[in-house]
Amino acid sequence: VFGALSALVGDPADAEALAALMQEPDDDPGDLEAMDKLWAETAVTFGPADAGCPKAEALVSAMAVPPAPRHGAGATA
Q1: Dihedral angle, C-alpha 26, 28, 32, 33, nearest 10 °
Q2: How far apart are CA 39 and CA 29, in angstroms?
Q3: How far is it, in rounded angstroms, from Cα 60 to Cα 20?
Q4: Could you read off the pLDDT of 11-69 as tens digits, one per residue?
């Protein structure tokens, strides 16, 4: 496979760089903590970090207001 890839590239491999890569230890597939660190993602935010969504804030504010007392027919006390 690497021979085919090398043929597609056309340039010979850098023997020194390849030797350095081969000297690096393999990752332990059982080390789940290290794997979590490698695959950890940075949270994506859009806009200022401390600004909320104005539409959501308005909706939550409207839900936080207690309902007005009912008057007239069908009202229970």
Answers
A1: -70
A2: 13
A3: 57
A4: 777 889 999 999 998 888 899 998 898 888 888 877 777 777 788 888 888 888 887 88
| Residue 5: closest CA among 20, 16, 18 | 18
> Cβ of 35: how many Cβ atoms within 10 Å?
13
The sign of the torsion formed by the CA atoms of 24, 28, 29, 33 equals negative
Alpha helix stretches (DSSP H) within the chain: 2-9, 15-23, 32-39, 54-64
Q: pLDDT digits over 44-58, tens only?
A: 877 777 777 788 888
For the chain, the structural domain boundaries read 2-64
Give 6's contacts (C-beta < 8 A, 6+ positions apart).
Answer: 12, 13
